[in-house]
Design goal:
Creatine Amidinohydrolase, Chain A, domain 1, binds glycine, binds manganese (II) ion, globular, 38% helix, six-stranded mixed beta sheet
Length: 474
């Protein structure tokens, strides 16, 4: 078995090899027409497959929440990206040597099931709406595996995502090998398609950027609403419900991840999601919440005072984090690297920790000892897209572990933070229990970058002014 690392720059020559495998060079135009009905993402994926290959990409399944109820269905991101098909229990078969390269196996129409659990496209609807060459009932898939796989050199399939499907694929290989079928020709290489799809998903096209801007704008407005409405005595759950109701009202399918609504020292717990404590006068509130819009995520964090005014100590920590956040946004431009940005944030925050009296010593020694980890223990940001922690490698090559340079079309979060544990006796008493994170979503452009979430204020004076304006005068 071999796992391929895709090389984006190689895609043109792969396209040619793929086309040549499908026929003579004279056939290029005809084959281009063959693929023309497909989503551009799928066409680009096919162009990067090795010649005479087949890919099997499964949709997600519904997941049990408890007993006989399910979580709200969310499509698998890779499957969605390639096919745009929204239903569970489907499988895409992509065959670059066939005149019918794109097959979808889907749930058949079923009036009883549809009455209970919702509409289905069925075979006819799938053929009509999703640009596939053939559609069949999912019940037929197991019996068709050998027909699809035989005669191909390579299969693109990711193991360990769908264990039931893994079993079917392995049964196929077992059967071929045990029976030594002379006439059969099973694939001899198994590639993981993830590196190709991940690299594609990393570089957003104009349509994706538009959807991400919508997710970002809805989320930013939800944060502004939270700032306007929050006051002492409310519960974290009420802020959560305000934000999430707003997102749904504006067309988001919901949240892109569980909202973090942490008042007081709950803000020092990075993934605090209980969101059920009262908000106290004098405390800060950390809100990390983002909408999902047409499957694209936003991811915003703001930290603001419950009573509308930062205390002097809160403001000191806040301004350190804000300064680092703004400098790391400036750093998120073409040519700089993911690792360079992480190092930049560590250096700036270590300086900030010294300024606040949280750390003492030479900056270079503190960095070498990783002293900053006590108060800053996460990355400065991550890729954002269909998943909140989006697909795509962070290294250019696995051997040298060279960090990836930023390039136009990438969307990344910028989210430094400082978290001072409430029981940290080495920290100045006035800072204990303060947790601050500030997070924006940034699109790298040719000219520099664009902050997709700039509509929600982050300067402390601006936040205070916004909160004061929203409160009735006493
Ligand atoms: N809300 C998840 C994150 O910021 O990475
Ligand atoms: Mn994030
Ligand atoms: Mn976040």
């Amino acid at each position: 078995m071999l796992v391929m690392v895709s090389d984006y720059t190689d895609s043109v020559c792969r396209t040619r090899r793929c086309f040549e495998a499908c026929g003579s060079a004279d056939n290029l135009a005809a084959i281009a027409i063959l693929f023309s009905h497909m989503r551009s993402q799928l066409k680009r994926f096919i162009s990067q497959m090795e010649p005479n290959s087949i890919a099997i990409i499964p949709a997600a399944h519904e997941q049990t929440r408890s007993y006989d109820t399910e979580f709200k269905f969310r499509q698998d991101s890779d499957f969605w990206y390639l096919t745009g098909f929204p239903e569970p229990d489907a499988i895409a078969v992509i065959d670059n040597s066939s005149k019918k390269p794109f097959t979808l196996y889907v749930r058949p129409r079923d009036p009883l099931m549809e009455t209970w659990f919702g509409r289905r496209y069925g075979i006819e609807g799938t053929l009509k709406h999703f640009g596939c060459d053939q559609a069949f009932s999912i019940e037929k898939f197991a019996g068709d595996i050998a027909k699809h796989l035989n005669g191909h050199d390579h299969i693109y399939y990711r193991f360990s995502v769908d264990r039931a499907l893994d079993g079917q694929i392995l049964d196929y290989f077992t059967e071929q090998r045990v029976r030594r079928l002379k006439s059969a020709y099973p694939p001899h290489t198994i590639f993981d398609p993830t590196p190709i799809i991940g690299e594609m998903r990393l570089h957003k096209d104009a349509k994706e950027v538009e959807l991400m801007q919508t997710a970002a704008t809805i989320s930013a407005q939800a944060h502004v609403l939270a700032m306007k409405k929050t006051k002492p005595g409310m519960n974290e759950s009420q802020v959560e419900s305000l934000i999430e109701a707003y997102m749904r009202d504006k067309g988001a399918s919901g949240v892109a991840y569980n909202s973090i609504i942490g008042g007081g020292d709950n803000a020092t717990i990075l993934h605090y999601v209980e969101n059920n404590m009262p908000l106290k006068d004098g405390d800060l509130l950390l809100v990390d919440a983002g909408a999902e819009y047409q499957n694209y995520a936003a991811d915003i964090t703001r930290t603001f005072p419950v009573n509308g005014k930062y205390s002097a100590a809160q403001r000191e920590v806040y301004d350190v984090v804000l300064d680092v956040q703004e400098k790391c946004i400036e750093y998120t431009v073409t040519g700089n690297t993911v690792k360079g940005r992480q190092d930049h944030s560590i250096e700036l925050l270590t300086e900030g920790m010294k300024k606040l009296g949280l750390l003492k010593g030479k900056t270079s020694d503190l960095i070498k000892k990783k002293a900053y980890l006590k108060y800053y223990m996460h990355g400065v940001g991550h890729y954002l897209g269909l998943d909140v922690h989006d697909a795509g490698r962070y290294f250019k090559d696995q051997q040298a572990r060279n960090s990836k340079p930023f390039a136009p079309g990438m969307v990344l979060t910028v989210e430094p933070g400082l978290y001072i544990p409430p029981d940290d006796r080495s920290a100045p008493a006035k800072y204990r229990g303060i947790g601050i994170r500030i997070e924006d979503d940034v699109l790298v452009t040719k000219e520099g970058n664009r902050n997709l979430t700039s509509a929600v204020p982050k300067n402390a004076d601006e936040i205070e002014a916004l909160m004061a304006k929203a409160r009735p005068k006493r």
